[in-house]
Each structure stands twice: as structure tokens, then as C-alpha cells.
Design a protein that fits this description.
GO terms for molecular function: ATP binding; four-way junction DNA binding; four-way junction helicase activity. By secondary structure, this protein is α+β, with helices and mostly antiparallel strands. Helices cover about 50% and strands about 20% of the residues. It has a domain of about 60 residues: Nucleic acid-binding proteins (OB fold (Dihydrolipoamide Acetyltransferase, E2P)). A five-stranded mixed beta barrel has the order 1-2-3-5-4. Strand 2 and strand 3 form a beta hairpin.
């Protein structure tokens, strides 16, 4: 298995990045490739997971080991494949997701594309109590409150993405501004849309 790739980040696409390692380009599928944009044409280390099935061989890239571990746990849940796991990672930070699982927040979990009530309950059943033990985080009361706020921001961003698509913006355009929207930590969907439109106008 390939644990990580270290080389020059040569390309950032809608769903992938390419890392040049001594003349060999490794294409990595990422939750949000644009999160790596600032390292373009520079040396970078990206944690990877090699996904192997009868008809599939793919490399997935992650910002850190926690994201990689969460991805591996998510694809072990019945009803969630790599595409669904990436959709979750693209919209939420790891502590926020873990906190939602620990408090059995069905409403938050079903806000992700492709996650219905049945899958949300399966996530909770399979992962509750297991993620905190393995990831380099702990969820105490203060962190629960912080994570709850982060979850509100995530829900607003997910809703805003759908609104922006309805307005005709492409996935590429929307993904490119998600890191900036997450940094703003806005809980109101209308405000997220307003700021998103302002960012898109600058592109």
C-alpha cells in the first residue's frame, strides 16, 4: 500500500491533484483539491490511501492522517463508498464530524449528499466511540460546543452549494472557494451565499 506521496504539486484539477515524483506523475483523488492550491509547483507531502477493487485501482489524497483514517472508517460503513466519504470530508472538519457522531446527530449527518436516515444511523452504530479513541483529538464539553458551531457552518455551506449550483455555477468554481467560506465560520446560509457570490465575482 502507498502511505503517502512526496513530490512537486504540478496540477490541481476539479477532483484530483497530480504530484510529480522524480518524473512520475501520481494522480490523487481528493475531497477538495483546491485546499492544496497554495502549494502549486512546490514540494508537498500528501497522505494517501490505495483503494483496490476488482474493477478499480485508485489513489486518494488527504491533508493529514486524521482525514485519511476517517475516510477509511467511512467506506467501511454499509451504504458509503469513496465518493460519499469524500463528499463528507469536503464539507466538514474531522472534530466536527466526530462530535456529531458522538451526540448521535442524525439531522447533521443527513445533510450530506447521499446520506439518508438509514445510513446516518449506520454511521452512528458503526463509528460511535471508535473515532475518538483512534484520532489525534478528544471531544470534551468545550470542544462539543465548538464542534456544534462548526456543524452549523457546515450545514450552511452545504445548503449554499446547492443554491450556487442552481444559479449556474460549476462544481469547480464552488469548490475553489469552499476553504475561504469555511474560514469565515458563518452559520447563516444567506450570508454564506452572499459571501460566496462576492468571492466568485473576484474570480
Amino acid at each position: 500500500m502507498i502511505a503517502y506521496i512526496k513530490g512537486i504539486l504540478s496540477s490541481v484539477q476539479d477532483e484530483t491533484v497530480v504530484v510529480d515524483v522524480h518524473g512520475v506523475g501520481y494522480e490523487l483523488i481528493c475531497a477538495n483539491p483546491f485546499a492544496f492550491q497554495s502549494a502549486l509547483n512546490e514540494e508537498i507531502l500528501i497522505n494517501t490511501y490505495q483503494y483496490v477493487r476488482e474493477d478499480t485501482l485508485a489513489l486518494y489524497g488527504f491533508k493529514n492522517e486524521d482525514e485519511k483514517y476517517l475516510f477509511k472508517k467511512l467506506i467501511s460503513v454499509s451504504g458509503i463508498g469513496p465518493k460519499g466519504a469524500l463528499a463528507i470530508l469536503a464539507s466538514v472538519d474531522v472534530p466536527g464530524f466526530v462530535a456529531a457522531v458522538e451526540r448521535e446527530d442524525d439531522k447533521f449527518l443527513t445533510s450530506f449528499p447521499g446520506v439518508g436516515k438509514k445510513t446516518a444511523r449506520q454511521i452512528i452504530l458503526d463509528l460511535k466511540g471508535k473515532l475518538v479513541m483512534q484520532l489525534s483529538i478528544s471531544i470534551d464539553q468545550d470542544q462539543q460546543e465548538t464542534a456544534t458551531t462548526a456543524n452549523e457552518n457546515t450545514t450552511a455551506i452545504i445548503e449554499a452549494q446547492e443554491a450556487l449550483k442552481a444559479l449556474g455555477y460549476t462544481d469547480r468554481e464552488i469548490k475553489a472557494i469552499i476553504p475561504q467560506l469555511q474560514a469565515m465560520d458563518i452559520k447563516n446560509t444567506d450570508e454564506v451565499i452572499k459571501n460566496a457570490l462576492a468571492l466568485l465575482m473576484k474570480k
